[in-house]
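Minutes, methods subgroup
Present: GH (chair), OT, SY

1. OT presented the first of two proteins processed in the latest run. Sequence and structure tokens recorded below as shown on screen.
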Amino acid sequence: MTWPVEMRAARLLGYRLKIGLVVIIIMVLGFFNESQGTAHYGEDSVGSFPYFEYNVPRNVTTVVGQTAFLHCRVEQLGDKAVSWIRKRDLHILTAGILTYTSDQRFQVIRPDKSENWTLQIKFPQERDAGIYECQVNTEPKMSLAFQLNVVEAKAKVLGPADLYVKTGSLLSLTCILSQGPHDLGTIFWYKGSKLIEYKEVDANEIVEEPRIRLRTEWTEQLTSRLTIDKLLPTDSGNYSCVPTMAEAASVNVHVINGEHPAAMQHGNANTASPCALSVNLVISLYCTLATIYTSTVDGFR
């Protein structure tokens, strides 16, 4: 049986159309499956877009001269770049691992293949305080603000600047340091230019009670107490409280044999009571007036 030429041509065309349709369906399905499997790697996908880690300190306090660190952590950075900007003048400090300022105190620290981009500021001054932004060059731009506080920490010795103490009594000096970050270091005491050394004694060790004792503790502030028992005239001098991360403070101690009208330390008291002085003054004035009055009356008699 022979088919007419027109029928054979139509049948061949039908086969080709069916084969073409099957190929198109396979290609569409393959593309769909491939796109579903790789969508999370795409740059426009939400899952791969860079984002900041917010669980980092963003209000940082340091003292003058102590190196400050601002930690910026960026996840899924991809081919984007991280920059640090000083907000007050919009100055670009760093871009990537490069520094774009002539101020060599600024530097970015980024370990290899790390998500951390840390801005390091050496020898910070009070003028460096302000807002710094960690930026990522996405579209639109991403930024995270950090507040840097730079304070001038100062020690303070409680009591007057000149202290008069009796020979043989107990001297107690208290130095406090409350301003600044929690890492306030420690405190040393000096008499003049000589460091006052004190050796800690084991609780089980039986030794004679030392004449000089030091105790430093941290609660809401750093507190150091210097006590000297059985004072000698040679204990007179300038005593300085010198913190490792703050400005020092000092007091002049005068060891005397007799009473001094002011700034005498009695036990734990640093100064004479103003109230007691006022009462004594009133009594003295009353006695003086009474004497004058009696003398005058006797004169008229």
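2. SY then presented the second protein from the same run.
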Amino acid sequence: MTARAYTSRQLAPALGYLGSRQKHSLPDLPYDYGALEPHINAQIMQLHHSKHHAAYVNNLNVTEEKYQEALAKGELLEAIKRDFGSFEKFKEKLTAASVGVQGSGWGWLGFNKERGQLQIAACPNQDPLQGTTGLIPLLGIDVWEHAYYLQYKNVRPDYLKAIWNVINWENVTERYMACKK
């Protein structure tokens, strides 16, 4: 395949991928590094693709991670730090609670209105968070096998590691701000 044969139809799946929050990876070129010779030699193409383009992709991943953390800043992040010690400790605790659900259920970040605190809880099956614990739901992690089995099989911890890349922190922050009123 030559460089000119690379069409917008071939780009569409790659561009659609940009809308997800999974880590980006360096795509293979659809042509050999030497395909542009004698105008651009293979050594230049290899250097540009494997070094420069790779650096851009890696920097994009770093920037997106920092952006996700920034979304949780403000009052929600301060509450997380206050109630769990740090964002990392919060992630560890919610992940552990979610891994620990026997069978099917949910891991939750909830707000205890009486105490004015964030709390982590786990509920089996379809048991509702607010109805069983009194906590107002801010973030729920579905640990029913149907949520992850096709991709992660029975390795729930791998699913829980990945789920942090797709959490909508703007929504969690809105829920937190609304329940504080």
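Chair's summary of item 2: Residues 59 and 65 are 10 Å apart (CA to CA).
Next meeting: continue with the remaining queue.
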